[in-house]
Amino acid sequence: MPNPLPVHAKAETALRAQATRTAVVLIKDRARAYAKRPMMLENFFSGLSAAAPETIMAVAKRLIAAEGKAPRRWFGFGGEVPILNAKAVLLSARARRRDERRRPRPRAYDF
Questions:
Q1: What are the Cα distances from residue 64, in Å, to 5, 67, 75?
Q2: In this structure, is the dihedral angle defined by the CA atoms of residues 100, 103, 108 and 111, taken in order, positive or negative?
Q3: At what angle do helices 80-102 and 53-69 cross, to 10 degrees?
């Protein structure tokens, strides 16, 4: 029989799982908000609300990479909100791209 995890390890595992669930809920909620009001994307980069999904995804990936390189404070706070917002922008762009691919394109003879 394997050794059971110490109590503090179980608590840490539970906290990490809850933090992940919370982050996912926040990201999805913000992505829905960006989908409803694309003008909110202007806060990240000028002209982003009218850009193609691929462009939005590229900008979001650069924001995520830049935030990952940013220095952190010793107590762990700093950068969480910007990276959650950047991931929400990425998620909303992926959803927009998926919707555009599903939408039938008009043909020349349909006009």
A1: 34, 5, 21
A2: negative
A3: 160
Q: What is the pLDDT of residues 7-26, one digit of tens each?
A: 678 888 989 999 899 999 99
Q: Two tokens at 48?
A: 């982003």
Q: Can you tell me the distance from the alpha carbon of 104 to that of 99, in angstroms, rounded to the nearest whole number?
A: 10
Among 65, 73, 107, 69, CA closest to 90 = 65
Q: What is the pTM of this model?
A: 0.76
Residue 1 has pLDDT above 60, yes or no: no
Residue 100 CA to residue 105 CA, distance in Å, equals: 9
Return d(Cα 11, Cα 13) in angstroms, integer. Answer: 5
Residue spans per domain, the chain: 7-101
Query: Pick from 39, 37, 38, 53: which is nearest to 96 by CA?
Result: 53
pLDDT attached to residue 35: 92
